[in-house]
């Protein structure tokens, strides 16, 4: 068998080609399928490597017969298959031209299944479709070619004038496609340049959004929020005071309570002006308002805040030393355990350089305080005396 190049396709095909119009089965070839497939095998053994078929040959029966025979022989990759599209065998008698994009794609997919292959080497437009623009047909065939489902495109049953017209339209379509590809490449180049700039701009926008949110928050213009700059700054220092206060409050309450500010998101809502405090219970894991504290708990919270404020003032200003602190009453509302814890905290403070003075009528405190300034009153007036341990 001699072989030659098929046009400009690069395919080296046998000079003799087997057409499969006559092996479409009942009504086309009444021989059993085994005989029809034997003919295909004989052609392959004789060196034929090019087969022509079409889905219009008995509604795809010829394609199926050819596909099964080549698959059984395991020679598909050595063969060249030409099939067709644009001409649909409707009811065993009539044909319908269909060169629409959807029709071309559907026929191609059907042919691939019939032929048991992933691609066809040559797809021919079987007949011109007067109802579909040729450009539409070619555009879909070009897509299928780019997808690797067909390798070459041709025409069948076209007149010379129709072929010349098709070539003009093909060339125009190719030029348009090349133009799109050039534009796409230009867009990609522009995108590669702009992407880093857009990422940089995105970071700037994100930073600006944070600054804008902060500005609205500080100016009291945040939706549902009326916290002003003064309150914002006060919250900053109150947070530091609470950090110091909670160390004492935790000791006094045996680790039960700690003070927390309301969330910034809720600051300014209703009667809240951003400095309201909540009490968090380590026992229940819940927050509640400070006004729900008992008298003794309120005293411990107030004492802790006072001590925390003193710590913060000294930390913020090295020139200020708060060496003396007087506490007036409050101990009477504490139970024995809480009172002992509060006094223990004050004794630890007094053990340093601070002088802690407690003004109280609670008799039980006398046993806890070593140095006392005792004030008594009689008909002659008030009298004071020191009791130093």
Structural class call reads alpha/beta
Q: How large a portion of the residues is in β-strands, by DSSP E?
A: 15-25%
The CATH topology annotation of the largest domain reads as: Rossmann fold
Number of helices, counting only DSSP H or I runs of 4 residues or more: 8
CATH superfamily of the largest domain: P-loop containing nucleotide triphosphate hydrolases
For the secondary structure, the number of strands is: 16
Helix-strand sequence: EEEHEHEEEHEHEHHEEEHEHEEE
CATH class of the largest domain: Alpha Beta
Strand order of the largest sheet: 3-4-5-8-9
Could you explain how this protein is built, in words?
The protein is an alpha/beta fold and 389 residues long. It folds into 2 domains: 3-158, TIM Barrel, CATH 3.20.20.100; 229-387, Rossmann fold, CATH 3.40.50.300. It has 8 helices and 16 strands. A hairpin with a 5-residue loop joins β11 and β12. α1 (33-45) packs across α2 and α6 (229-252) packs across α7.
List the helices and strands and how they pair.
Elements: E1 3-5, E2 12-14, E3 18-19, H1 33-45, E4 50-52, H2 61-73, E5 80-85, E6 87-89, E7 95-97, H3 101-115, E8 122-125, H4 134-146, E9 153-155, H5 160-219, H6 229-252, E10 257-261, E11 277-281, E12 287-289, H7 295-316, E13 324-328, H8 336-350, E14 355-359, E15 372-378, E16 381-387
